[in-house]
Amino acid sequence: MSPILEVRDLVKEYPVRAGLLRRQTNTVKAVNGISLSLERGKTLGLVGETGCGKSTVGRCLVNLVAPTSGSVLLDGEDLSKMTSKELRAARRRIQLVFQDPYASLDPRQSIGSILVEPLRLHKLAQGQENQRVSELADLVGLSQSVLEQYPHELSGGQRQRVGIARALALEPEIIVLDEPVSALDVSVQAGVLNLLDELQEQLNLAYVFIAHDLSVVRHISHEVAVMYMGRIIEQVSTDKLYETPLHPYTKALISAVPVPDPRIERTRQRILLEGDLPSPLNLPVGCSFRSRCWKSTELCATVPSLIAYDDHGVACHHPEKP
Amino acid sequence: MTHDSTNEILLEVKDLSVFFRMRDGEDFYAIRNLSLNIARGESLGVVGESGSGKSLTSAAIMGLLPANADVSGSIRFLGEELIGAKESELRKLRGKRLAVIAQDALTALNPVQTVGKQIAEAISVHDNSLTRAELRSRAVELLDLVGISQPETRVDSYPHEFSGGMRQRALIAMSVANEPDLIIADEPTTALDVTVQAQILDVLKRIQDRTSSSLMLITHDLGVIAGFANRVAVMYSGDVIEEGGVDSVFYETAHPYTRGLLGSLPRLDARNRSEPLYRIPGFQPSLAQRPEGCSFHPRCSIAVAGRCDTDIPIVHRAGPEHVARCHLVEDQEAN
């Protein structure tokens, strides 16, 4: 099956300006040449720590920011080569759900009118907008009375459901979810994760699930890509990643996540990484994980490329034995 | 459990209630009849979702509640009653025997003073016999203790020159500067990435081993509790609804809320999409609008009408050193 979404060598650079004249003094490569593909009805998890570029990738996917180079292909068609009319149609098929459901909803609009807006803009369900809005509320498990309310009257979980309903309004095929549950309490998070599962099954949606929480990502994704400083360093089907991680960074990352089980916690070996994430302005030459890696050698002064062992991709000169 | 052999109770909170007087007349109890103990050398995890009163409890212990809060009950620390104690007495205690590690390290540090100065100040406030050079070398020592590399140079850095993890380390250095008996850490790793969180928890553990101070770790992360605490108190809507040794609470969970919370967590060690997560219906009420009876009853799948919705549950013994505030927990024989 051909992928519904493909990313090829995506690069996004941001200029760094300084001084009185705001001259450009440097560039930050937020995303440094990544490739991805996503099939219909599947979830791709994109994980990494603060500043690894995962949200920038998400924004490039929906064309909220234009990539510096590389391409995003929707059903084989390059978003950057589309006319504005084509782009508008393409945007309908790929929607974004934001992390902060409060900041992404207009406080002065009722939930009903927030949900009608995308329908009007895209001239969908004309004449039957209200009926469609009430269907959407049902779909995400919101009661009809919520439609009369305003964002501040809702709980965090309800707001995130509104965010999801708004994305669903245009009957997209792909939803990019940028940290959709990280602002929610765990008991509420579970409801939203289950809802995403159900919707995927029901509507054959493809998700790009961007998150820093590795437990959540394991639960929801079919395949996971791990990012570090703008690059994908490991990519494979979910259980394989968690059971036999090949990249030292992935291994350390997984070992650092606490498990809510005291007996298991007492026996777990943590890999404690030295130091902090490097500054994106001053990355180590070669492999960017080199400064924190216990396996690094002179070889690591060159950038490792993403090599697939069977279908397990890893970008490391000294990968673990599979 | 691995308590100190003396098993000396360091902090004893009994029937603590915090009552807020509001300007609009809508007064309410934010915390009611909360009881907690911490023994010397022990780590107590306090877990709960946002709005459960975790941070308020720590503020009450520190005597740092806002002016419109009325506190009743008893908080005994090292045998001394803190409620009603003079501010000057509390000030001698705070930062000396009772220390706090704040969640947000950036706002907790003074941006226009070097990190070293701030650590020195934490010491000299309680002991002004040390010379400047002594204070400085003590600050270097402390930065080294919390795992900051090149402490001799870092001691002269300003907070903005530190990364998030380093700032948190600096705060820990400040809080342990006077070798306190009890450290209250309020979500010390929430703002940090998981690899940095692991480093910080490691530092806390090492410090605790070295100084045998007790730790009250406030967090929303049950995983952190599982790996760090000896005992755990679960808070819901201003009450401790379950409390006991970590193993008892995690494996012989007594309260339906705790059970729901554990069931709703996606786990790192569970296979992909193995089963749907448990979802606790509804959401936590605000402290100002607690339902009648048991605060959890509207969300509870086993609530009994005529009891759970009318009577506030008392504390029942769910096992040895394990209690739960639920009508449906049968009292176990004490042993």
Q: Give the distance, in angstroms, between the N- and C-terminal Cα atoms of chain A.
A: 28 Å
Supply the number of helical segments of chain A.
10
CATH level-4 homologous superfamily of the largest domain in chain B: P-loop containing nucleotide triphosphate hydrolases
Number of domains of chain A: 1
Q: Helix-strand pattern of chain B, N to C?
A: EEEHEEHEHHHHHEHEHEEHHEE
Q: Under the CATH scheme, which class of the largest domain in chain B?
A: Alpha Beta
Shape of chain B: globular
Instruction: Sketch the topology of chain A as an H/E string, one letter per element.
Output: EEEHEEHEHHHEHEHEEHHHEE
User: Order of strands across the biggest sheet of chain B?
Assistant: 6-7-8-3-9-10-12-11
- In CATH terms, what is the architecture of the largest domain in chain B? 3-Layer(aba) Sandwich
Largest pleated sheet of chain A: 8 strands, mixed
User: What's the overall average pLDDT of chain B, rounded?
Assistant: 90
The radius of gyration over CA of chain B amounts to 21 Å
Shape of chain A: globular
What is the quaternary state of this protein? heterodimer
Work out the helicity level of chain A: 25-40%
β-strand amount of chain A: 15-25%
First-to-last CA distance of chain B: 15 Å
Chain-wise SSE layout:
The complex is a heterodimer of chains A (322) and B (335).
Chain A: E1 5-18, E2 23-38, E3 43-47, H1 54-61, E4 69-74, E5 77-78, H2 84-93, E6 94-97, H3 111-121, H4 129-139, H5 156-168, E7 174-178, H6 186-203, E8 206-211, H7 214-220, E9 223-228, E10 231-237, H8 238-243, H9 248-256, H10 262-267, E11 307-309, E12 312-314
Helix pairs in contact in A: 3-4, 5-6
Chain B: E1 9-20, E2 28-39, E3 43-47, H1 54-62, E4 69-77, E5 80-81, H2 87-93, E6 98-101, H3 105-108, H4 115-124, H5 132-145, H6 151-154, H7 164-176, E7 182-186, H8 194-211, E8 214-219, H9 222-228, E9 231-236, E10 239-245, H10 246-251, H11 256-263, E11 316-319, E12 322-324
Parallel strand pairs in B: 3-8, 3-9, 6-7, 7-8
Antiparallel strand pairs in B: 1-2, 1-4, 4-5, 9-10, 10-12, 11-12
